[in-house]
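Thread: quick sanity check before group meeting

JM: Hey all, I'm pulling together slides for Thursday and realized we never actually wrote out the predicted structure for the chain we discussed last week. Dropping the sequence here so it's in one place. If anyone has concerns about the input, flag it before I start.
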Amino acid sequence: MPRITLDMLRRRAEHNEGVLSTLEEITLHQQDLEAIEIVGDVCRNLQILYLQNNLIRKIEGLVHLKALWYLNLAINSIQAIEGLEGCESLKKLDLTCNFISDITTVRRLRKNIHLETLYLTGNPCTETEGYRQYVIQNLPHLFDLDGEGVKRSEVIMAQQEALPVELRKRDEAAKAAEELREYEEKKAAGALPEPTYNEKGERLYANTPDDRDACYREMQEKIDQAKNPPKDPNSISAQWEANEKAHARRKLTPEEEIEKYGRILQKNEGKFAYKMWEDKDNVYLELLPGKFISTASINVDIQPTYARIEVKGKVFQMLLSSEVAPSRAAVKRGTAKGELLLTMPIVGDFHVADLRMPVNKRQHADPTADAGADAAAPAPPAAKPAPEAKKIEPLTRGSLLDFGEKKPPPQRKADADLPEMVETKAGGLRPAKQSAQIEELD
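JM (edit): ok, ran it. Output follows.
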């Protein structure tokens, strides 16, 4: 069943820009509400309140509404008039079509001296003899009762016949209280009569609050089935959903992780920022789940060797550097950033590396070899030296123009390797070998 929440009130207060502290009128009818909550605490300046056509059984939570002058609770499941003593400004009260059988409860409205209009039409109490006289006699300041004006003569006659009507109404109230007690006893014992059905197979309901609630639930189920009809189990979509549900991945518990992997896994599914440190007395773990995450959505599980934090289904699991005492641990949350701080007192000796050894190896290991395990452990391999950084030459005009492969510059030949030169007739120079060949040709 729906409940009154701050979000609902803000949505209904759009005409006041969602501000509740200065809200004067609000409508909460046809919301299937079962109780009056929050309204009297956050809307202190409320003057008009509509709560008709719900499933409310008790008038409560309105004691702080000093400025309320109109309250509509028609078509609900209210059985008694109560909880309105603090509504000092109440002028109009509508309780049409409820289940008020004890008419003597109208005496509780005597403190509402400004009450002028009262509607009780459709309640069982209106069917008793002397009903109108009794109400007028106890509430002489009324101007209108059930849509009919109260005359001066009616007030005088009610005062004259007050005693016999009072005695008769007391007897009827006692009888109604006894019937209600018997009904509650039968309900608690499960001895209520079986429901009856008509020729069409439709259930017949009595005029009681429980039957009204049952009728509402049946109607709601029919509406939900019409909106979301059941799928054919042989359809492709139904088979696909069943297959997905059967093969859906389930998060392992720490015990299942130890059984499967031999150790506790470290997780940070929500990618939360965290920090862990310790001093000589405590191990500290700080986690930032988010400022606007509700504390009710955070679950913390502290064990001697690890801490597990679940934030709206996202698991954060961390091995602790030292063994702690969970019974003396403390958890606090900041109000500025919403950070979570776990303070865990240190006890005993503990090494994280012990949990990383597989369970089967630990079970078959030699217990006498534990003492020298640290000494016999091989030394870690030496770290490889970092490669030298390549020298980057500065860019020049020549390097930008040279896109091909660089070739070494030509070497100058030594003087001994140069050919012997002779002078020609024209005054030039020519290799001596070439000059001899030319002379032979001549």
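AS: nice. Residues 351-378 have pLDDT under 50 and may be disordered. The longest strand covers residues 282-288.
JM: adding both to the slides.
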